[in-house]
Amino acid sequence: MPVAIITGASKGLGRALAEALAARGWDLVLDARNAGVLKETARALEAYGTRVTALPGDVTDTWHRTALVTEARALGSVDLLVSNASALGAEPLVRLEELPLDGLRRALEVNVVAALGLVREALPALRAAPAGTVVTVSSDAAAEAYETWGGYGASKAALDQLAAVLGAEEPGLRVWAVDPGDMATDLYAAAVPDDDGARPEPASVVPALLRLLDERPASGRYGAAALLEAR
Q1: Are 119 and 175 in contact (CB under 8 A)?
Q2: According to the model, what pLDDT value does residue 231 have?
Q3: Is the pLDDT of residue 171 over 70?
Q4: Distance between CA atoms of 133 and 213, rounded to whole angstroms?
Q5: Of the given ranges (57-61, 84-88, 126-130, 196-200), which has the lowest mean pLDDT?
Q6: What is the CB neighbour count within 10 angstroms for residue 183?
Q7: Neighbours of 127 (CB within 10 A)
Q8: Predicted local distance difference test score (pLDDT) of residue 51
Q9: Surface-to-core class of residue 210, CB atoms within 10 Å of its CB (0-12 exposed, 13-18 middle, 19+ buried)
Q10: What SUPFAM superfamilies does the database record attribute to this sequence (predicted)?
Q11: Would you tell me how many other CB atoms lie within 10 Å of the CB of residue 223?
Q12: How far is residue 198's CA from residue 59's CA, in Å, rounded to a whole number?
């Protein structure tokens, strides 16, 4: 069966996608920082009869990234790499004049540097896979100027550019940067705790990601809303 590595997989979009792939028979290597929540997620997904390896850790740790790829290879391959783990830079979000530079560095390390590091670690296996695929989870803040979203948006814009260049450099792979749109996630709640407006559940975005996997369009940046509308 195909094997996917998903970072930030203990809850939110990462968990929702992992569950959808498990239902399709994919084997999974899952990452998150909270070991307890990640273990519970893995236990739930094993009910689908698939093999699930849960590795708690921080994606900025080189050894942790190596372990994720090693575990995927042990399951057979690396067919799909999903960089979903994200850091905001400040919680709650603040204007640029107040943004701690250490917070910005953390956002860049998690959202950009670690994502590239994991791709580099997995690249030989991705090239060898029948349909090697990289998905980076983007944000509309990468393309639009929203007050207080500057640090996070800048990191996601950088991630978009890395994905675009990777797609050009690796024509044998599919590399998709996906903007999921607004979702009801812990990340959004931490970013804007005073905003209690209704938002879609992460599971509502998963069909857009599955469509990409099924149809395998050209590498590029895709919005979940457009993918869902076109179904």
Answers
A1: no
A2: 63
A3: yes
A4: 8
A5: 196-200
A6: 18
A7: 12
A8: 98
A9: middle
A10: NAD(P)-binding Rossmann-fold domains (SSF51735)
A11: 17
A12: 30
Helix axes 150-169, 101-108, angle to 10 degrees: 30
Q: How far apart are CA 225 and CA 204, in angstroms?
A: 10
Question: Across residues 199-225, what is the average pLDDT?
Answer: 97
Mean pLDDT of the chain: 97
Residues annotated catalytic, as ranges: 138, 152, 156
pLDDT at 196: 86
Cβ count near 157 (within 10 Å): 17
pLDDT tens sequence across 39-66: 999 999 999 999 999 999 999 999 999 9
Q: Amino acid letter at 13?
A: L
21: tokens are 């792939």
Helix or strand holding residue 202 (H, E):
none
- Separation between Cα atoms, residue 63 and residue 114, nearest integer Å: 11
The verdict on pTM exceeding 0.85 is yes
SS3 track for 14-82 = HHHHHHHHHHCCCEEEEEECCHHHHHHHHHHHHHHCCCEEEEECCCCCHHHHHHHHHHHHHHCCCCEEE
Across the beta sheet with 133-137, the strand order is: 52-56, 27-32, 3-6, 80-83, 133-137, 174-179, 220-223
The dihedrals phi and psi of 146, each to the nearest 5 degrees, come to: -110, 130
